[in-house]
Design goal:
Length: 257
C-alpha cells in the first residue's frame, strides 16, 4: 500500500535463498499536475548458516582438528567468516574471533586448531554479510594421552641367565563425555639389545629371558588407548657378565717364605 509521506520506510522480508528485486514507485502531485519516479532495488537473503563440521570429530591432545563451514546459499556472499576456539565459551558467548581460510575450489571455509588439554571443547562459527550476523557452535572431544610407565626388577642391573621382569604402571585419566570413555587397549614392549637387535612383545607386564649378550639394553613401553592416543616410556638396563675369580702367583718359593 502507498503512503502519503515525504519519506517512508518498509520492512522487506526475503525468506528465499536468492536475491529478490523490488520496484518502488513514487507519485508526486499538486494543483499543477502529477509526476512519477520508480526505482528497482535488490533485497538479498539474510545470512544463512549452512553447516560446520569437524574432521575428525574427536582427536588427542596436541593433535589438530580441521573445521569446514559453508553457507546454504553456497556463493560465499558473506563479508566475513570467523571462528572462536575459546574453550570457556558458553551459549555463544565467544570473545576472540579469527578469520577462516577460504577454499573456493571446495566451496568451503576451513580452520584448524589443536588443544593442549583434554575435554569437550566448544567452537563458535560466525557468518556475516551486509544483512545479518549468524553464530552457531559445535563441540569436539579432545581425548587425554595415556601415561606410559613401568618399573624394572633388579634396579636396572641384571646378570647373564636372569629373567627381566617389568611391572606396568601405565594409566589414562578419565574425562566426562557421557557414554564415551578412554582406556588403554594396547601395551607394546620393545627391547633393543647391545647389538641393535629388536624384540617386540604384546603383553601387560613383561617377563623376558634376556639373551646371553652382556651390555646395555633399551626397553620401551608404548601404550595406545581405544581412542588412538598413545605415549611411550623408555628405560635402560645393563646385563652384566658373572665375575671370574683368578689370581697370579710364583710357583717357586723357599721354605719359610
Amino acid at each position: 500500500g502507498g503512503q502519503f509521506l515525504p519519506t517512508f520506510s518498509h520492512l522487506y522480508i526475503n525468506n528465499s535463498l536468492n536475491s529478490v528485486s523490488y520496484n518502488v514507485l513514487v507519485v508526486g502531485y499538486n494543483d499543477c499536475g502529477t509526476d512519477t519516479f520508480s526505482t528497482i532495488f535488490s533485497c538479498g537473503p539474510a545470512a544463512v548458516m549452512g553447516f560446520v563440521y569437524p574432521n575428525p570429530a574427536s582427536t588427542c591432545v596436541d593433535d589438530s582438528i580441521t573445521f569446514f563451514g559453508s553457507d546454504l546459499i553456497g556463493n560465499f556472499s558473506a563479508i566475513s567468516w570467523s571462528w572462536d576456539f575459546d574453550p570457556l565459551a558458553i551459549n555463544n558467548n565467544f570473545t576472540t574471533w579469527e578469520p577462516w581460510i577460504p577454499d573456493p575450489q571446495n566451496n568451503t571455509m576451513s580452520a584448524s586448531h589443536a588443544w593442549s588439554t583434554p575435554g569437550i571443547k566448544t567452537i563458535g562459527f560466525r557468518f556475516t554479510d551486509s544483512c545479518d550476523i549468524q553464530v552457531v557452535d559445535t563441540t569436539v572431544i579432545i581425548w587425554p594421552e595415556p601415561i606410559s610407565n613401568f618399573d624394572l626388577s633388579g634396579d636396572s642391573v641384571l646378570c647373564l641367565g636372569d629373567t627381566l621382569f617389568a611391572n606396568n604402571n601405565s594409566y589414562v585419566t578419565s574425562i566426562d563425555t557421557g557414554s564415551l570413555s578412554s582406556s588403554i587397549v594396547t601395551h607394546m614392549w620393545t627391547i633393543t639389545d647391545p647389538n641393535g637387535a629388536i624384540v617386540q612383545v604384546l603383553s601387560y607386564d613383561l617377563v623376558y629371558p634376556v639373551p646371553n649378550i652382556a651390555g646395555q639394553y633399551q626397553i620401551t613401553l608404548q601404550v595406545i588407548t581405544n581412542q588412538g592416543c598413545d605415549s611411550s616410556y623408555t628405560r635402560i638396563f645393563e646385563l652384566l657378565n658373572p665375575p671370574t675369580a683368578s689370581f697370579l702367583f710364583d710357583p717357586t718359593f723357599c721354605e719359610d717364605t
